[in-house]
Design goal:
Strand content: 15-25%
Helix content: 25-40%
Structural class: alpha/beta
Distance between the termini: 33 Å
Radius of gyration: 18 Å
Largest sheet: 8 strands, mixed
CATH topology: Rossmann fold
Number of domains: 1
CATH superfamily: NAD(P)-binding Rossmann-like Domain
Order of helices and strands: EHEHEHEHEHEHHHEEH
CATH class: Alpha Beta
Shape: globular
Strand order of the largest sheet: 3-2-1-4-5-6-7-8
């Protein structure tokens, strides 16, 4: 088990931080804390009305911009319009176990929203990023497997939790391969990952089965930690003095609760060949790849 990190959340003052999905859940909690630490926070959200309502509840400098990770044209539009330097990008937005759906580009909704959208966004913004990229994964990655023959569940029967696990495993494989590429070009930027453990957020209760959603939300409420506690691993991954490819999560109760620490990941999440293959496939699917970083960015 890694060292305790909650005392190592560093200052975020005067830093520009873009956080996707910052209008609800652990993203909103993290954004509020960062804004309260005198960072300039940009909420990249699908629903700008909800984003503005969230921003108005926060103390500090907070902007709102539209971004739909389930639509690659929206991802490109956001990147094209965001020309300012970024200190930290937090890939926080995600969905969990919805009924089978498709993104605007035809990908399975969880894989497209949780992985392909953030993959494209990160690569498009990378020349502007000065410090780090944080991607929020899940303990659910341990149940995931990358099915290269059917990434978007077009042939096999759809299993929402398995699809979620695949997308969250993809987050960790993306982080490790991104860090490898950043190291290869001697970039000062690092890639880290985090997970909130079992946090009581609005991700639960979205299966479409009302009875199941009510029971699930009630059970989660009994054993989970708050959104404020659940966002601490994200804050550590974003600001603590940790090496690239670090993974931060709660350190107690099998990583479901507790203070943030450096935590382990599944064997599948540490496979460099799978990470490289996934990167190549993701480039082909999104049309976004690792940019050539000039000396100015380096």
């Amino acid at each position: 088990m890694g060292p305790k990190l909650d005392d190592n959340i560093s200052s975020a003052a005067d830093r520009t931080i873009v956080i996707t999905g910052g209008n609800s859940g652990i993203g909103r909690a993290a954004a509020a804390m960062l804004a309260g630490m005198d960072a300039h926070v940009v909420l990249a959200v699908r629903d700008t009305a909800k984003g503005r309502a969230a921003a108005e509840s926060m103390r500090g400098s907070v902007d709102v911009r539209r971004l739909d990770l389930a639509d690659l044209s929206s991802v490109r539009a956001f990147a094209d319009q965001f020309t300012d330097p970024i200190d930290i990008l937090i890939n926080n937005a995600g969905i969990m176990v919805p009924p089978l759906g498709r993104t605007a580009d035809g990908f399975e909704l969880q894989f497209g929203t949780n992985h392909l959208g953030p993959f494209a966004l990160t690569n498009l913004l990378l020349p502007q990023i000065r410090d780090r990229v944080v991607t929020v994964s899940s303990i659910g990655h341990r149940s995931g497997a990358i099915d290269f023959k059917d990434l978007s569940w077009e042939r096999k029967p759809y299993r929402p939790m398995a699809a979620y696990g695949q997308s969250k495993l993809a987050n960790l494989l993306f982080t490790s391969e991104l860090q490898r590429r950043l190291t290869e070009v001697s970039s000062p930027v690092i890639a880290t990952a985090a997970h909130p453990g079992l946090a009581a957020t609005n991700l639960f209760g979205r299966s479409g089965d009302r009875v199941r959603d009510v029971l699930s939300s009630a059970a989660i409420g009994l054993i989970s930690q708050s959104e404020q506690q659940g966002c601490l691993p994200t804050l550590c991954a974003a600001t603590a003095n940790i090496p690239g490819n670090s993974y931060v999560g709660p350190g107690s109760f099998k990583q479901t609760r507790g203070e943030p620490k450096l935590v382990g990941r599944s064997a599948e999440a540490k496979d460099p060949e799978v990470a490289r293959r996934l990167w190549t496939v993701s480039e082909e699917l999104t049309g976004a790849g690792f940019p050539e970083l000039s000396g100015e960015e380096l």
